[in-house]
Design brief:
Rossmann fold
Length: 168
Amino acid sequence: MKNILTISGSSRKDSSNVQLLKALSSIDGNSYTHFDALNLLPVFAAELDRHPWPQKVLSWRHAIQSADAVVVCTPEYIYNLPAQIKSALEWIASSGELVGKPVLPITYTPNEPRGERAMQSLLWSLEALDARIVAQVAIYQNQIKVVNGKFEGDKETIEMLSEVLRML
């Protein structure tokens, strides 16, 4: 059993992206911990990236470092990543917590083609951080939904998600 950290790019506390991440445990036996404090991280500024680091930044870095793998699920805002996920990733650029770490990037948006540009931006950031990207997954809300903590909808999409989780 792996310890997998989940991170939502959405700024909403109980967004569909958060619900999707919390439902992952319903399709495999891994242990999932959701990092739900991205909104508490200060906006990244290079001059703040030195000792003494803000406690929230240290907690963020520790959460990633202690995980066996990471799943990032994000919506697309104005054709890009939401600002809070981009800023959070910038906080680990100098410290290296994602170097070699297995990461599964997911976009979860209402329908195609939404999410394509956010995925590209996320992939660029993860590559710059030297993360080991195991796959990339675009999921659409018109395919599957989370109801009472479980996935409902297109069985092939749910099975594909299960398979990529095994790759972590």
